[in-house]
């Protein structure tokens, strides 16, 4: 069906369909809007994309998105720099920051260990995490310099998928060699959720993660 479009529009649809959650039909609607709507709005969008691509990169410390070599979160002296939260992607940092419940520092893995998809630890920022923790990943024997990184706790906040759990276990096995406390985010019944609709695994995790009131 897309063959009836002009070649330039087909290219635009093809590029838009490469975006997450955008199928060919949605890409077609977006392309039509961009080409038939306000020209200045389309030009502004193109300029915003160009500028973002040129100026935004990854923080050299935590690998969150940033316009400077070190992101504002890592530079913020008001944050607890002795507690580090490991997440899968930049969007997870955004979510935690919006919640207001965490005031430590982060490390973004940019992926999870997924052998079935051909994604190993080397395809993520796990090795960068190990270097950050002053851990020699080849011998697992190097000691952390407490003057450089006085970590008291590493929180593993990967997703509760099979891949997320496997990644958390893998990272925990490396970090525990440092003598640093390793924790996993709680998993269980969401706020406002009803027990009768929860699956068995979620209920078990909720019971295991119970705490005093």
Quick take:
This protein has 213 residues and is an alpha/beta fold.
If you had to describe this structure to a student in words, what would you say it looks like?
This protein has 213 residues and is α/β, with parallel strands linked by helices. It folds into two domains: 2-55, Helicase, Ruva Protein, domain 3, CATH 1.10.8.420; 76-184, 3-Layer(aba) Sandwich (Dna Topoisomerase Vi A Subunit, Chain: A, domain 2). Helices cover 39% and strands 12% of the residues. Helix 5 (90-99) links the parallel strand 3 and strand 4. Helix 1 packs across helix 2. Residues 135-149 have low confidence and may be disordered.
What layout of secondary structure does this protein have?
Elements: H1 7-16, H2 24-36, H3 39-55, E1 57-58, E2 65-66, H4 72-75, E3 80-87, H5 90-99, E4 104-108, H6 126-132, E5 153-156, H7 162-175, E6 181-184, H8 200-208
Parallel strand pairs: 3-4, 3-5, 5-6
Antiparallel strand pairs: 1-2
Helix pairs in contact: 1-2
* Tally of individual domains: 2
In the CATH hierarchy, the third-tier topology of the largest domain is known as Dna Topoisomerase Vi A Subunit, Chain: A, domain 2
In DSSP terms (H or I, runs of 4 or more residues), the helix count works out at 8
Q: Class of the largest domain in CATH? A: Alpha Beta
Proportion in helices: 25-40%
Q: Give the end-to-end Cα distance, rounded to a whole number of Å.
A: 60 Å
Q: List the strand order in the largest sheet.
A: 4-3-5-6
Structural class: alpha/beta
């Amino acid at each position: 069906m897309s063959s009836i479009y002009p070649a330039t529009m087909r290219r635009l649809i093809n590029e838009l369909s490469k975006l997450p959650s955008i199928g060919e039909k949605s890409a077609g609607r977006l392309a039509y809007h961009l080409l038939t709507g306000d020209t200045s709005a389309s030009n502004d969008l193109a300029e915003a994309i160009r500028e973002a691509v040129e100026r935004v990169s990854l923080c050299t410390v935590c690998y969150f998105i940033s316009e400077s070599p070190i992101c504002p979160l890592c530079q913020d002296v008001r944050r607890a720099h002795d507690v580090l939260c490991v997440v899968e992607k930049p969007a997870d940092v955004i979510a935690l920051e919006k919640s207001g419940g965490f005031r430590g520092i982060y490390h973004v893995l940019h992926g999870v260990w997924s052998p079935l998809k051909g994604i190993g630890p080397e395809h993520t920022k796990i090795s960068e995490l190990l270097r950050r923790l002053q851990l020699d990943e080849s011998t697992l024997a190097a000691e952390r310099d407490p003057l450089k990184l006085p970590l008291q706790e590493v929180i593993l906040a990967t997703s509760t998928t099979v891949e997320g759990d496997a990644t958390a276990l893998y990272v925990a096995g490396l970090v525990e060699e440092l003598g640093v406390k390793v924790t996993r985010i709680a998993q269980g019944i969401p706020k406002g959720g009803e027990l009768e609709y929860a699956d068995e695994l979620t209920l078990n995790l909720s019971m295991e993660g119970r705490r005093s009131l």
